[in-house]
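Sequence design from tokenized structure. All designs in this work follow the same two-part layout: the structure record, then the generated sequence. An example of the structure record is given first.
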């Protein structure tokens, strides 16, 4: 087409470079802090803990997904749903640790 004929050539390194590589690397470093954050939140009273975990995990689910960390994002969405259920059920139930472990396991694989 006329557009590709008139377009300047794209440098070879730009064709394969991931424009999000720097952000992904910084997020990988941030993910290493998740275990300590969850431990801190789990030490709170159950009703406070569930709300804190739900809020914290909400941002992880979206950010991880946007950066291509699908397994982390999926685990975060499941944890967020579990935490919201615990927050909203009125019984002051602690968030099941299995959901937190699943998220941290997904982080370890990235």
């Amino acid at each position: 087409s006329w557009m590709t004929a008139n377009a300047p050539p794209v440098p070879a390194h730009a064709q394969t470079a991931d424009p999000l590589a720097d952000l992904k690397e910084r997020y990988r470093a941030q993910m290493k802090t998740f275990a300590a954050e969850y431990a801190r939140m789990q030490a709170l009273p159950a009703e406070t803990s569930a709300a804190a975990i739900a809020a914290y995990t909400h941002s992880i689910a979206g950010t991880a997904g946007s950066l291509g960390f699908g397994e982390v994002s999926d685990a975060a969405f499941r944890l967020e749903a579990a935490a919201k259920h615990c927050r909203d059920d009125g019984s002051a139930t602690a968030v099941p640790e299995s959901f937190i472990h699943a998220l941290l396991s997904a982080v370890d694989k990235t």
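The mean pLDDT is 88. We note this feature because it recurs in several other targets discussed in the main text.
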